[in-house]
Design brief:
The protein is 41% helix and 24% strand. The chain is α+β, with helices and mostly antiparallel strands. A hairpin with a 2-residue loop joins strand 2 (58-63) and strand 3.
């Protein structure tokens, strides 16, 4: 098993896993009723350098050439830099409604990255590889990268019903900071968690 920075060529395999990290959220914001499926959107923009879904913010677990895990690591600067191109891509595929949904999701359920924090996202393991400790490996790699880059705090949002992920994060030193109740039945409640690096 190899942990590596993602490349554009990984888009087709990585996109379905990214969607698995938050299927309701992706399908709510990127509604196939208005445009392409959320997986197709993620595949297209994973392969480009310009949006917040770009490969340049992602790391992968590979079994030979098979993508078995995904991890995104972003900063406030990454988020701000990619905001305009992300919004533009969303409008081109889904119209203005997707922007409104995305903003509501970000403002009321999850938090955009804070300054001086490294934000963990899109943590997913291919179903056939679960139960082998690979999720823990991804989280530990996030720690190493954060330390190497000089960050003192890691942060993430997780679905409140994703008990396995919450326990994984707790075992790795994350603490719950805020519970956010969903504003629609189409989305899950979320928990914001942080880890302070010693």
């Amino acid at each position: 098993m190899k942990f590596t920075a993602a490349l554009p060529k990984h888009a087709q395999q990585a996109a379905p896993l990214m969607r698995l990290s938050g299927p309701k959220a992706f399908d709510y914001v990127f509604s196939s009723k208005q445009g392409i499926s959320s997986t197709a959107y993620l595949e297209k923009y994973f392969a480009t350098p310009h949006t917040i879904f770009s490969h340049k913010y992602h790391y992968l677990l590979l079994n030979n050439d098979e993508v078995v895990g995904t991890l995104a690591l972003t900063t406030k600067q990454n988020h701000d830099d990619g905001f305009f191109q992300t919004a533009k891509s969303m409008i081109s595929h889904y119209g203005l409604r997707s922007i409104m949904r995305g903003l509501l999701f970000e403002l009321r359920l999850v938090r955009p990255p804070k300054k001086q924090h490294l934000c963990v996202g899109h943590v997913a393991i291919k179903p056939s590889y679960r139960g082998k400790g690979l999720g823990g490996q991804l989280i530990q790699q996030a720690d190493l990268i954060a330390r190497h880059r000089g960050f003192k705090t890691l942060a993430l949002d997780v679905r409140a019903d994703n008990l396995n992920a919450i326990e994984l994060y707790k075992r790795n030193g994350y603490k719950a900071k805020k519970y956010s109740k969903s504003f629609t039945q189409k989305l899950d409640d979320h928990i914001y968690m942080e880890k302070v690096l010693e």
